[in-house]
């Protein structure tokens, strides 16, 4: 799974996403949590918690959401400025 996480982190960074680290790092977990931590507030052109225009993708730019979902991952808001990316 580490390779999959690293690969998705690279793909997100290539699209301009501010990747902060893993979900394990975010939660200060003593055990491994498979997920990616994203600072969504830094890229309002990609993430907008309050966007009604992107309602069908829950505030994620549709093209970015499609890339992630087609790779077997999905976005989930932690709060209005923090996004998590999880493996389906």
Explain what this protein looks like in three dimensions.
The chain is of the alpha+beta class and 88 residues long. It has one domain. The chain has helices spanning 2-14, 23-26, 62-70; strands at residues 19-22, 35-39, 73-79, 82-87. A 4-stranded antiparallel beta sheet has the order 1-2-4-3. A hairpin with a 2-residue loop joins β3 (73-79) and β4. It is globular and about 40 Å long.
Can you give me a brief rundown of this structure?
The chain is α+β, with helices and mostly antiparallel strands and 88 residues long.
Our measurement of the CA-to-CA distance between the termini, rounded to an integer number of angstroms, reads: 12 Å
| Average pLDDT reading | 94
Proportion in helices: 25-40%
Shape: globular
Give the biggest sheet: 4 strands, antiparallel
Number of strands: 4
The fraction of residues in strands falls at 25-35%
Structural class of the helices, strands and pairings? alpha+beta
Element-by-element helix/strand order: HEHEHEE
| Contiguous uncertain segments of 5+ residues | none
């Amino acid at each position: 799974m580490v390779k999959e996480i690293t690969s998705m982190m690279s793909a997100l960074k290539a699209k301009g996403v501010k990747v902060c680290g893993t979900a394990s790092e975010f939660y200060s977990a003593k055990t491994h949590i498979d997920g990616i931590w994203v600072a969504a507030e830094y890229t309002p052109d990609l993430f907008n918690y309050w966007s009604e225009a992107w309602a069908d993708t829950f505030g994620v730019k549709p093209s970015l959401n499609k890339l992630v979902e087609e790779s077997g991952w999905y976005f989930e808001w932690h709060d209005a400025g923090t996004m998590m990316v999880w493996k389906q």
